[in-house]
Amino acid sequence: MPGPEGDNSIAREPLWHAYGRGDDRPEPPPWTWASTPPPDSHVPPDPPRPAGPSRVLPTGTAERLSALAYPRVPAAGPMAPDALPHALTAAFGPVRREPENPYNEHRPYASPRCLFPVHAFVGDGAAWRLLEPTRHALTGPDTGAPPTRIALTGRYTAIPVAYQWFRGSLVSIELGMVLRALSLGLELFGVPATLTPPSGGGAGLLRELGQERTWEWSLPWLVDVAGPGPVARAGRDAPAPAGDPSLADVVRVDREQAYPAGAAPLTTAVPAGLPDSPVAPDWAELLWRRHSGRMPRALHGMDSAPRPAPVPARHLAAALAWLGVPPPHPVLAAAFDAVTVTAVVQHVEGYAAGVHRFEQGAAHLRRADPTAPAGLEANYGYGLSPVNGCGIAKAPLTVFFSVRPRELSARLGPTGWGAAQLACGWAVHGLCLAAAAAGLFARPVRAFKEIPTKEVIGLAEDEAIVLSAVVGVPRDTGGDQLDLRT
Ligand SMILES: Cc1cc2nc3c(=O)[nH]c(=O)nc-3n(C[C@H](O)[C@H](O)[C@H](O)COP(=O)(O)O)c2cc1C
């Protein structure tokens, strides 16, 4: 079992992975304590643009999403010619700039520090172009053929080196979030598709995408809208540069994750039977309202405002429904089954304050404890300070996704680790949309000190926290919100 040294998610992550793969007493790798530049000094790399023109995507996506009543999902029908570009904009297109927020810009899904390490490359069977959400364009060779496939891959070097080995986890979690955002976009624009996991064999597809520095990238997941296409596999990885040993190890672990299965259909991102939202009559409004919580005057973090009345029970029921939708593809659904969901609840009508286990669409009280939210806040890495807001003690709901790494590995082999992170990303994005529909915010976070937090929520010694999310009541910051939707 990982020891108590360096009790934070960045240091413990490789230990849990090693424990899962059979090491009973994993030792912190030597680079754990290496000094790294402060995250705020990180300069993200230039966009990975292939050579070729930048073609602007069609406008009018927000207008079309406004015409789609929430929570209904249109029945599948004949696909409109520009459905795929609109689905891409619905999934990735910038929504908002918040001049007072230290992090910008804001897309339909959350991303650590708005770094958006996961990129989409869009192919037509002959060539690949880069989706550039900020430019609202596809960049690369324009063959004139309609796009038919999307390759999703995460760029480790988009994340500050200080995150060390945790860069791999952040990429996998965001891949799961993006997969749900894209599934939703495709569903809303009536585009059926399949999903093909990376099956190992090498970095051939990354080179096909024009990425010669293959070590910067995770092996791609492919979404095909015209039936599964061929996948380039063979191709050697370019060696990761010396001086960043945790990155070399992240790439090694990513390349071990060869999924044996081929393509499977994308399933739904949206649970059936959702209630109407009191704040979002349509999907454009829902996506506009999704956010991670804000602070005024460029302060970091989030705060949860007081609510005059408890949160209605139907909002928690809807969140449970969003959390219960399995991700697409049997390999991810199997990992999703291995994830435990534990929640600290307070001020929700009909639910006792304390620790609940979320299982099969229902909340089961494990321990009544009105002090649990304050216990969580006391063990969070970014507590209340003159530069940081923290609303965890006041938040109606904080959700934890955890796994048993040994069990995961025994059931799913080397793919279990990444698949579980994708499954948690998928689930947390559903929770973020549920919160938006309830007029709340949901902030995915990883900054809990794991060992004491597990005591608060009653997890066993061999359980590892993959991800958590704080669901709070937005406070009015008085800051501007610039609408970037197209
Ligand atoms: C995987 C993940 C981990 C995150 N971890 C933290 C965290 O530990 N602390 C925090 O304050 N925010 C965290 N965030 C929240 C992001 O900073 C936030 O989503 C981003 O600033 C964008 O804001 P928005 O979601 O309102 O658009 C995390 C987000 C993701 C997706």
Automatic annotation (TrEMBL):
Pfam families, per database record: Nitroreductase
Molecular function, one GO term: oxidoreductase activity
Taxonomic superkingdom: Bacteria
Stored InterPro entries: Nitroreductase, Nitroreductase-like
Domain Nitroreductase: 383-472
Residue ranges of the TM segments: none
Residue span of region Disordered: 1-58
Pro residues biased stretches: 28-51
Protein name: Nitroreductase domain-containing protein
Lineage start: Bacteria, Bacillati, Actinomycetota, Actinomycetes, Kitasatosporales
